[in-house]
């Protein structure tokens, strides 16, 4: 995805560590992670973690609904 002349790519990654059990939709710029939308299966909440400052609002507005759809619903135990 191209925003303001900057190319962003996306990956889905699972995480099973204490306090971080779920599925993440990661946004990358080159070799740097920009942010992650995370489906936390322990808290049953979606979380956004920014790894850079000054993330374009247009990028977040576009990706958050996509991430929610791609990460799917919470699966009950």
- Structural class by helix and strand composition: alpha+beta
* Order of helix and strand elements from N to C terminus: EEEEEEH
The number of helices is: 1
Mean pLDDT across all amino acids: 90
Radius of gyration: 13 Å
Tally of individual domains: 1
The count of strands amounts to 6
Globular, elongated, flat, extended or rod-shaped: what is the shape?
Answer: elongated
Q: pLDDT under 50 segments (min length 5)?
A: none
- Which range best describes the helical content: under 10%, 10-25%, 25-40%, 40-55%, 55-70% or over 70%? 10-25%
The rounded distance between the terminal residues' Cα atoms is: 35 Å
Largest sheet: spatial strand order: 3-4-5-6
Q: Approximately what portion of the residues adopt beta-strand conformation?
A: over 45%
Report the sheet with the most strands, covering strand number, pairing sense and barrel closure: 4 strands, antiparallel
Can you describe what's shown?
By secondary structure, the protein is an alpha+beta fold. It has one domain. The chain is 19% helix and 49% strand. It is built from 1 helix and 6 strands, in the order ββββββα. The chain has one helix at residues 57-71, and strands at 2-3, 6-7, 9-17, 20-29, 32-40, 45-50. The chain has a 4-stranded antiparallel sheet, covered by helices on one side. The longest helix has 15 residues, at 57-71. The mean pLDDT is 90.
């Amino acid at each position: 995805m191209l925003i303001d002349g900057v190319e962003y790519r996306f990956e889905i990654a699972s995480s099973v560590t204490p306090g971080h059990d779920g599925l993440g939709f990661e946004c990358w710029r080159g070799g740097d992670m920009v942010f992650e939308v995370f489906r936390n299966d322990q808290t049953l909440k979606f979380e956004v973690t920014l790894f850079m400052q000054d993330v374009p609002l247009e990028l977040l507005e576009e990706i958050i609904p996509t991430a929610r759809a791609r990460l799917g619903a919470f699966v009950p135990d």
